[in-house]
Amino acid sequence: MDQDTIIINGNHLVFRSGETILETARRNHIDIPTLCHLKNAIPTHTCKICQVEVMGEPALVESCAAKAKQGMTILTDSPKVIEARKEVIKGLLASGYHNCAAREMDAKDWTSFQLTVLKNDGKEDLCPVWGDCELQDLAYRYQVKTRHTPSKECRYDTERANPFIIRDFSRCILCGRCVKACREIQVNNAIEFGYAGDDLKIIAKNDATLKDSDCVFCGECLQACPVGALVPDKAFRDHRFKDTRKIRTTCSFCGVGCQMDVFVQDNKIVKIDGADTDLPPNHASLCVKGRFGYEFVASPERLTRPLIKKDGKQVEASWEEALDLVAQKLSAIKSESGPDSIGVMTSARITNEDNYIAQKFTRAVLKTNNIDHCARL
Ligand code: SF4
Ligand code: SF4
Ligand code: SF4
Q1: CATH annotation of 5-77
Q2: Average pLDDT over every residue of 210-234
Q3: Does the beta carbon of 263 sit less than 6 angstroms from any atom of ligand 1?
Q4: Which atom of ligand 2 is nearest to the CA of 181?
């Protein structure tokens, strides 16, 4: 056998120095489910869902933590592995208020149940991340049958005091991804594990609300949360993030150029995540503006018609009238005082394409380089 080779499900795969079994598998498009694992953060191997069978090992091995070693023979979906995963999923579903899977189901039941619940959209009890939840996906994938009915006792009060983020620890599976996202990715240290035993919980500053803590509302924890414990407040108001269309674009708020995935439903942006890629400059992270600052796009208060100041008042005008006036004024200023007497300021609230055209117009038509963008403030 070649150096640095492992066998996963019969495939001979070369691993890189220091790589875990999970990393080698994923690089080779072999799917191993995870819940607590967060890319670019230190593995904590708490959820155990990524366990695999390594030939010769007495117990299952957590693939997110175990380094690939020469000659290892691994099965990612053996009956023993699947049985263990089912137990983990059962335990997680039973640990909180996971009412979406509180019944015995087969594939047919699941579909009809889904439809029934979706019809009841808007009910207080309906989980806001229905259809967009990694635990629910796993319960479906492994057809976990449970008769566990979540009791009202396993409910926490939903924390709705914060801008942008709603916290509901009834659905927290204590995977720790949010803590890693806050501490290791954003380096904000606003949240941590607090209390112990049955009271174990994610807390912010002496168990305060996020708004009364060091949180800067970057939303990295929200993006990392695999279940409905952290949800955008919009999910409680208007939208279910099912059946959205994902569009990759560049954030226009500042000059960094973060890559983002915009989720669109009924021609409206309903959510923005850092692009699901390891590309620079942001490596999937976003700041508060990029992630949450999009309601202006569909705001009914947006100007849709030009306004011309007449007798001190802004008066609605036609596009022809407005464009003629601007052309006439710019031409007059240019011929009287030269092109460099004009400056153009563009905006983060228009598209990249509009910004591009504005700089083209400034340089090629007005003949000045006095063009800037609010992103450079
Ligand atoms: S968090 Fe996920 S598993 Fe729990 S109720 Fe919501 S959709 Fe279901
Ligand atoms: S929003 Fe950002 S700063 Fe606040 S807890 Fe989440 S990751 Fe930390
Ligand atoms: S809030 Fe979400 S990410 Fe944080 S520990 Fe709970 S389930 Fe995991």
Answers
A1: 3.10.20.740
A2: 94
A3: no
A4: 7
